Amino acid sequence: MIAKDLAGPAAPGKVLEALRRVGVTVDILVNNAAFQPGPLMAVYYASKAYLLSFSEALSNGLMGSGVTVTCLCPEPTETGFDKVAALEKLKIPKGHRMSAVQVAGIGYRALMKGKTVVIAGLGNKIVAMGTKLAARSWSTAVSRRILETAGIRKLQ
Fold first, then answer.
1. Is residue 100 predicted with pLDDT exceeding 80?
2. What is the pTM of this model?
3. Domains and their CATH numbers in the chain
């Protein structure tokens, strides 16, 4: 398919048909920032919330089409990203970190089962549930305190 075939009002239908033909599954990776407000890193947290909402909406919109969407929300994962992104200087609690292999396995199994959202790890599940139960102002204040403790003191 070429780009001109994807232009115009029929484009979504053409894209969906192309996805159906190849049996596509879509895996979107976010983290627990998707479940809470993040002062001092507002754009980052909002982008994760957007991806979670987008995944849920896209999955529902594609229901019955043969295209599946899974949004994977793992705990912190050992990938070496901290070192590459120079995040080592921040005082981010190391705590329990999943291996990339564990995260990939969880994501693959969820994708194959057709799950829309999978929250990997007990800590992540507690954060996701806790932010639903707590007042938004409290969640925001706790998030800010965690970010400040990690060494983030101004809006990023």
1. yes
2. 0.78
3. 23-149 (3.40.50.720)
